[in-house]
């Protein structure tokens, strides 16, 4: 492992512990705050995520947004490939996808213009630390090369970190929504 890989692994371990504590405490309000933000983008093709492990749950806000336009969830196509997004409906059947994430039973791919992005940690400059696969970085780079694409990190306040280990390929977030605040960059 490289020194940066070791630093990122340590940062992830600490962030996972903070996220678990926040998940266990379940302070309400985050999904409502995310809904308020998304209300300004009604009808814009969007993507959320179906939470795994201790991730914050965006599904209530995604369900609201789905009443106005397409909402998808990420589908991992393979190692080192960008994500694709399959249309999601609140009560539609799901199947198991890679890494324990649920995905729609039937693929209906489209390109979102707004992405609600899961993360392990974030900083106050709009940077995020993900799981290490680079899926969202590759995907955002590809989507942004084609057109304006808004990336909104969704996390618990406890996932904030002062000093994230970053690489040149890391794609910044445009906004972060937590249970107590909305940060814009």
Largest sheet: 8 strands, mixed
Amount of beta strand: 15-25%
CATH class membership: Alpha Beta
Task: Count the DSSP helices.
Answer: 4
Q: CATH homologous superfamily - what is it?
A: NagB/RpiA/CoA transferase-like
Please give the radius of gyration in angstroms: 15 Å
Strand order of the largest sheet: 6-3-2-1-7-10-11-12
CATH architecture grouping: 3-Layer(aba) Sandwich
Mean pLDDT, nearest integer?
A: 94
Number of strands: 12
What is the SS-derived class? alpha/beta
Shape, principal axes of CA atoms: globular
CATH fold label: Rossmann fold
Q: What is the N-to-C order of secondary-structure elements (H for helix, E for strand)?
A: HHEHEEEEEEEEHEEE
Query: What's the helical proportion of residues?
Result: 25-40%
GO molecular function, one term: 5-formyltetrahydrofolate cyclo-ligase activity
Keywords: ATP-binding, Ligase, Magnesium, Metal-binding, Nucleotide-binding
Protein name: 5-formyltetrahydrofolate cyclo-ligase
Organism: Lutimaribacter marinistellae
Which labels suit this protein?
EC 6.3.3.2; Rossmann fold; alpha/beta; 185 residues; eight-stranded mixed beta sheet; globular; single chain
Report on this structure.
Helices cover 29% and strands 21% of the residues. It has 185 residues and is an alpha/beta fold. It has a single domain (3-184), classed as NagB/RpiA/CoA transferase-like (Rossmann fold, 3-Layer(aba) Sandwich), CATH 3.40.50.10420. The strands form 3 sheets. Strands 6-3-2-1-7-10-11-12 form an 8-stranded mixed beta sheet, sandwiched between helices. A hairpin with a 5-residue loop joins strand 4 (94-96) and strand 5 (102-104). The longest helix is centred in the N-terminal third of the chain and has 23 residues, at 3-25. The radius of gyration is 15 Å and the shape is globular. It starts with a helix and ends with a strand. It catalyses: (6S)-5-formyl-5,6,7,8-tetrahydrofolate + ATP = (6R)-5,10-methenyltetrahydrofolate + ADP + phosphate. GO terms for molecular function: 5-formyltetrahydrofolate cyclo-ligase activity. Its cofactor is Mg(2+).
